[in-house]
Amino acid sequence: MAAGPASGETSAGDTSAGDTSAGPIQLKGNRSLERLRQRVEEAARELERLRGENAALLERLQAAEQRPLLDVEGALVGFDEEPEVLRQKVAGFIEAIDRYLDQNRADRDEA
């Protein structure tokens, strides 16, 4: 047998693909750690965003709990607008529906 590298082995000082020294493994480990660090930072940013969203939702819930509720045939209903503003909006919707229905009737009568 000849003295020298066997199949798959490399000579001293060669850092080719067959080499399993700490150098390439360390670099791969650094890349993995960097990706892990980035993912942890992304997760931390998302947690902060969600905490902010939760705080805003809590404020909205507390504000909604302070609004008076109307008892309409056994169902409790809460509105953001003052009653008169709400009445005006509903009246406007009713008028728009009436105009639409009247127009449909007129169109059918003409046909």
Please characterize this protein's 3D structure.
It is a single chain. By secondary structure, the chain is mainly alpha-helical. Helix content is about 65%, strand content about 5%. It is built from 2 helices and 2 strands. It has helices spanning about 20-65, 85-110; strands at about 70, 75-80. Strands 1-2 form a two-stranded antiparallel ribbon. Strand 1 and strand 2 form a beta hairpin. The radius of gyration is 37 Å and the shape is elongated. The model is unreliable at about 5-15 (pLDDT under 50).
Structural topology:
Blueprint: H1 22-66, E1 69-72, E2 75-78, H2 83-110
Antiparallel strand pairs: 1-2
Name its key features.
111 residues; mainly alpha; two-stranded antiparallel sheet; 2 helices; elongated
Mean pLDDT across every amino acid position: 78
Helix content: 55-70%
Alpha-beta content class: mainly alpha
| Shape category | elongated
C-alpha Rg (nearest Å) = 37 Å
Strand share of the residues? 5-15%
- List the total number of helices: 2
E-strand count = 2
Brief overview:
This protein has 111 residues and is mainly alpha-helical.
